[in-house]
Amino acid sequence: SSKYVLSHVHPMWQGPLAVPGGDKQSPIDIVVRKSVFDPQLKPLTFQYDPRTCQQIWNNGYSFLVEYDDTSDKSTLSGGPLQDPYRLCQFHFHWGESNAWGSEHTVDRRLFPAELHLVHWNAERYSLFEEAVMEENGLAVIGVFLKVGKRHEGLQKLVDALPAVRHKESVVEFTKFDPACLLPTNTQDYWTYAGSLTTPPLTESVSWIIMKQHIEVSHDQLAVFRSLLFTSAEEEVQKSMVNNFRVQQAMKGRTVRSSFT
Ligand SMILES: NS(=O)(=O)c1ccc2o/c(=N\O)[nH]c2c1
Ligand SMILES: [Zn+2]
């Protein structure tokens, strides 16, 4: 008789605890006193063209603001990077409460949310999908969000979110300059070699985590939490919250800082 094997459904966010043989997994806790200042790290150069902004897509994990990455119109260079990297999308991770939600932490400090600006090395690879699988294929800028005053630049994005409430929904979204989401006081950052924090979890990411957080209002974050993991057809609707991965072992890696 055919044996039914019930595969236990483990929540995506616990995910495989570590990719088999994975020794450069993300996210991590940044232990400030163990980070090493690297004077050779350059300042970051963000050259974003708002005209490359195309749409917002609910992919069932987060909502992605997607950019036209068929040419070098929106790029990140400098920092730890050898080449310029092309912006392809940005997205966030957040909690069901303001007490947690970020993927990375600083000396174990949790933030209510974390922004990821995703870039890929179009000097070496011809497609994002290719770069995802390769060493030095991706560069992701992480920015922590704190609850405080309303973020005027974010509001245009917040107002568009109800249109992508369900998984698989897409809405046109243009002329958005992601530079408005970057910290203003300082460009200080930490950097380390890591991985994607959602499948395929490949170890292709140069992580650049900004030391300075940005502030968004409680109400703006509440709109993130009004999104759903589930598509319009599914009977049971699940709120899109806690879409962060558990932290991974350092396995001997060092976090470098651009500041003393
Ligand atoms: N969350 S994350 O590590 O920034 C990230 C960025 C880009 C990604 O593309 C993915 N699959 O194609 N997963 C993923 C995670
Ligand atoms: Zn992410």
What brief labels describe this structure?
single chain; about 260 residues; mainly beta; two-stranded parallel ribbon; 3 helices; 15 strands; about 10% helix; globular; binds the ligand NS(=O)(=O)c1ccc2o/c(=N\O)[nH]c2c1; binds zinc ion
Any chance you could write out the topology, listing elements then pairs?
Elements: E1 29-30, E2 36-37, E3 44-47, E4 53-58, E5 63-67, E6 75-78, E7 85-94, E8 105-106, E9 113-120, H1 128-131, E10 138-147, H2 152-160, E11 170-172, E12 189-194, E13 205-210, E14 214-216, H3 218-224, E15 256-257
Parallel strand pairs: 1-8, 2-15, 10-13, 10-14
Antiparallel strand pairs: 3-6, 4-5, 4-11, 5-7, 6-7, 7-9, 9-10, 12-13, 12-15
The protein binds the ligand NS(=O)(=O)c1ccc2o/c(=N\O)[nH]c2c1 and zinc ion (ZN).
Explain what this protein looks like in three dimensions.
By secondary structure, the protein is mainly beta. It has helices at residues 128-131, 152-160, 218-224; strands spanning 29-30, 36-37, 44-47, 53-58, 63-67, 75-78, 85-94, 105-106, 113-120, 138-147, 170-172, 189-194, 205-210, 214-216, 256-257. The strands form 2 sheets. Strands 2, 3, 4, 5, 6, 7, 9, 10, 11, 12, 13, 14 and 15 form a 13-stranded mixed beta sheet that branches. 38% of the residues are buried. The structure holds ligand N7J and zinc ion. Residues 91, 93, 116, 197 line the site of zinc ion. Zinc ion binds at residues 91, 93, 116, 197.
